[in-house]
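Example 4.3 (complexes with small molecules)
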Amino acid sequence: MNVLVIGGGGREHAICVSISNSNLLDKLYCVPGNPGIENVATCIEGDIMNNDFILDICKKNSIDFVIVGPEAPLTNGVVDILNSEDIYAFGPDSKAAELEGSKIFMKDLCKKYEIPSSAYETFFDADSAISYLESQNMPIVVKANGLAAGKGVIIAHEKSEAIQAVNDMLINNKFGSAGDSIVIEEFLEGRETSFFIISDGNTVLPLGFAQDYKPIFEGNKGPNTGGMGSYSPVEYVDSNLEKEILSLAQKTIDSMNKEGRTYRGVLYVGLMLTENGPKILEYNVRFGDPECQVLLPRIKNDLLEILYLSSKGELNKVTDYELYPDSTICVVISSPGYPEKPITGSEIIIKNNYNILHAGTEKKNNKLYSKGGRVLNILGKGSDLLIARDEAYKLINGITWKDMYYRRDIGLIENE
Ligand code: AMP
Ligand code: GLY
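Answer. The structure with adenosine monophosphate bound is encoded below.
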């Protein structure tokens, strides 16, 4: 089949690499792609938020199947449009993508179906939100309802910070329409982890857990980023807890069915492991980035077949599903100044592309330059995490880029 991948970061590079050897694949396209993806797919420039443009590419290139990487095209309804033209697509339609697109929808779903999550209240005006805050203990969490590029969650340690967040969202319009309504929720304490499944609306295939490192600096200091590294599997979830979390994921899929919002695609379940058991922090309707990069190499089956069967509602046809026990690690290399103000445009020389994924690079006159905040992803694989870690960090020595920044403590468990 001819396949189109939507997106152009490290996550999409990982997806393209994983499906490029599938026997089911004829031609692979990616929009917009990147210089790394170019080695395995035909890249097409253009706006991934323009559904007519995506449909046009599909028709011109006889695309049979589309895989959507980021959340924005999903909430923007690209899967709805493709399905209406009889093109299968991996990822939820816009109604199911509300699970990430609306915090209020997510919290109400958990409450209705008794899926453990923090206590919360929903507000549409600042006065009611502020008078509610008067009776609450700190810290407390204020969240913009809509998608806010990971910036719409404020953990307030002082009442004044919580009030500021409420005003920024509901009055000052700092988050645009994403902040027209908000959730104020109980602050949860514990270890944070992420669990991933692929579903077709009924059947659930577990991809396991991945650990992400959000803060920019070593020792988990500094502002949060999209993720500076990841590894999978994790060592701190035993099989009983894993079963419990898998059943929460299945319950989520079943609840979505009951709501008439069949969920097809990957579901990223963000959890806090509290002393009262696992609680859902958030759902994402896509693979995490850089979690995807460490989850996919662990899948023994043909990834393209799994994604395709998910989109058709036929995952029950997968009978020999298996994950490798080996560890995979991903170290993100970023531009200096990331996440606030990345300084880009410096030349990068990579001797050998083995296990190097591109995230924010561009090619000019056959030379490679940094383009975004997160620029390269270095993978390491091995029978345990430390072996995988050594492999990844050694590969960094083969990269010449005077400005590069990366955390040296990815995969060092004591630093989390
Ligand atoms: P979200 O996008 O809802 O996952 O929030 C982003 C990050 O904020 C999470 O990854 C957590 O680190 C943190 N967070 C969100 N909700 C809570 C909560 N109720 N208690 C503690 N931390 C939270
Ligand atoms: N790495 C976190 C995310 O993709 O949301």
